Amino acid sequence: MSRAGLGGLLGRLESGALAKPLRFVGLSGIGWLLDTSVYMLLVGGLGLRVFVAAMIGGLCGATFAFLTSSRWVFSGRRHGLGGRLLVYLVYIAVQIVAMSAVIDGLATALQAGFALVDLAVSWPLIALLSKCLITPFVLAMNYLVARRLNAAP
User: Fold this and answer.
1) Which of 37, 48, 91, 130 could serve as 106's disulfide partner, Cβ 3.0–4.6 Å?
2) How far apart are alpha carbons 69 and 36 in whole angstroms?
3) How much of the chain is in helix, strand and coil states, percent to nearest 5?
4) Residue 16 has what pLDDT?
5) Residue 119: phi, psi to the nearest 5?
């Protein structure tokens, strides 16, 4: 595809119905990198339990994603950001506890499955894989909640 063709396609996407979700995914991707970096440092570097590391990393990434998406994705509503952030953090706290338990359980199941087929996979890699497997579901939930919280009154 030529530069002009690609530019035209990107222009249509930016002005179309996919603009907000694509910006949200981009900013959430940066938040996910922050989340996952903290998570892997805590699991692989400090030996923290997956459950605890997922909660700490998740809080870092989700706060970044909400604050940046409130500004650059859902920019129609400027007032009351503090209150909306508080509601989002309550939502995120519940979600992080639930998803951390899912990640922890999934990592344990993956470790057992790999052992069953006699495949040696390091614990940090298993922890990362379990986190990656739930990310699309979490991203979709976070988008829907952030969109709702940032909707014009």
Assistant:
1) 130
2) 19
3) 80, 0, 20
4) 62
5) -110, 120
